[in-house]
Amino acid sequence: MNTTIEQLLNDQIKYEAQASMQYLAMASWADANGFNGVADFFYSQSDEERVHMLKLVKFVNERSGNVVVPALQKPTDSFSGIIELFEKFLESEIFVTEKINQVIYECLQNKDYNVHNFMQWYVTEQLEEEAMARTLLDKLNIIGTDKSGHYLFDRDINDIASSH
Ligand code: OFO
C-alpha cells in the first residue's frame, strides 16, 4: 500500500475513534442531564463510529498495511444545552466527510482503485449521517430554548433518527 494512502487511512482511523469518544462524552452529558433519548442516540452513534474505525483497522491489516492505534484528545464534555450538542454533532460529521473526501482524492491521484472502492461505503454513510445531523439540528432550531419542546425532542429523537 502506498505510504500516503496508508497514512491517510491511519489518520481516518483516528478521526473515527475521536468521533466515537466525542459522542460517548455527549451521550454521558445527556444521560447526566436527564435527556435519556438523546443519551441513547449518542451512545449508539458512538458505537457506530467505533465500527467505522474497526472496519478501517481490519482493511489496512488485510492489505498488509501498518495500523497505528492512535492517542486521542480528550473530548469536549461540557455543553450549554442540547442545541450545542447537535451543533457539535453536525460539525464533527462535516469534518469527517472532508477527511474522507481527501482520502478519495488521494486514491484517484495514486490510482488506488481498491481503496477508492472500499471508501465508497464511507461516502454513503457520511451522506446519511450528515443529513440526519442537519435534520435534527433544524428541528432544534425551530424549537429554540423552549423546555417543553426539548422534552418532546428527547422523547421522539430515536423515532426521528430511525425513520431517517
Ligand atoms: Fe460519521 O463518521 Fe464515521 O464515517
Automatic annotation (TrEMBL):
Q: What does this protein do?
A: Iron-storage protein.
What Pfam family is a match for this entry?
Ferritin
The protein's organism comes out as: Lacinutrix gracilariae
Q: Which UniProt keywords apply?
A: Cytoplasm, Iron, Iron storage, Metal-binding, Oxidoreductase
Q: What is its main location?
A: cytoplasm
Name the UniProt record assigns to this protein: Ferritin
| Ferritin-like diiron domain sequence ranges | 1-144
Q: What Enzyme Commission number(s) does the record list for this chain?
A: 1.16.3.2
Could you say which protein family the record assigns here? Belongs to the ferritin family. Prokaryotic subfamily.
* Catalytic activity of the protein: 4 Fe(2+) + O2 + 6 H2O = 4 iron(III) oxide-hydroxide + 12 H(+)
User: Which residue spans adopt a coiled-coil conformation according to this UniProt entry?
Assistant: none
Localization annotation: Cytoplasm
